[in-house]
Amino acid sequence: MRRGPVFASALIHVGAIALLLLIASIPAVRESVARLPDRVVPLLAPRPASQSKASSGGGQRNPLPATLGKTPPRAVTKIFVPPMAVRMENPKLAVQQAMVDAPEISIDASDIGDPMGKVGPLSGGPGGPFGIGGGPGPGIGNGPGPGTISYKALGITQEPRLLHSEEPEYTDEARRARHQGSVLLAIDVDVNGRVTNIRVIRSLGLGLDEKAIAAVQKWKFRPAMAGGRPVTAPAQVQVTFHLL
To answer: Helix or strand or coil: residue 137?
Structure first.
C-alpha cells in the first residue's frame, strides 16, 4: 500500500477541520448563528399517527407500486317466490269447493234412519210365520218358501200351538254392539207339548243363538193331534231380539 495518497487525504481533512474552527471563531459568524430560530426542521417529515397505524409495511425497493389483490365477485342474490294459486275468473272446468270442516251433528236418538219408520227389528213382511216376503215358510219372496211344513202330508189334523213363551236374555257383547235381529229355530214338539231336538236355521251371532235356544226350551205348546190323539210334530219358531 502506498503511503503518499493516504497522507495527502489525512492532510486535507485536518486542514478542512482547522478551517471550520477558524470560521467559527470569527465574531460575525457567531452572531449570525445566534440569530437563527430555535426550531429545527427535520429532513424527513414524520407520517401522521393515524396513517402509520392504518397502513404500515415495507417493500422490496421496487420502482413500481405494490400490486393490489382482485376484488371478490359480487354475490348473486336470488329472490325466493313462494308458489301461489292463481285463480281463474272464467275456468273451463269449474270445481266445487270441498267442505273444509265437517259440521258437528248431535243427534240424541237410539235409532237413526227413516223418521217415518218404526223402532224395533226389521220387518219380514206379511207372510210367514217365518222368512221375508208375503209367502209362507222361511224363504224369501211371495211364493211358498222352501222348508214349509206340510202338516196335511204328515197326517196331522191339528198343528201344535204355543201356550207359554219366555223372553230371551241379551248378551253383554250384543248389547254393547246394539245388535238386533231374529234367530230362526227348527224344533220338535212332543206329545206332552215340550220342545225337543232344537236346530238353528238362521243364526244371529254374538251369543244370541244360545240365548234363543235356552228360552225356547222353556216354551210350552199344545201338542199336535192326528186321529184324535197327540203326536210329535215338527215346527219352526222365530226368537226376536230388540233393544228398548
So the answer is: coil
Q: How far apart are CA 25 and CA 197, in angstroms?
A: 165
Angle of CA points 125, 130, 132, to nearest 5°: 40
pTM of the model: 0.42
Map residue 161 onto helix, strand or coil.
Answer: strand
The predicted-structure confidence for 201-223, as pLDDT tens digits, reads as follows: 888 888 888 999 999 999 999 88
Is the preceding peptide bond at 129 cis, omega within 30 degrees of 0? yes
DSSP state of 189: E
CA nearest to 144, candidates 160, 156, 128 = 128
Measured CA to CA, the distance from residue 215 to residue 167 in angstroms comes to 6
In the chain, the amino acid numbered 228 is G
* Helix segments in 113-183, DSSP class H: 172-176
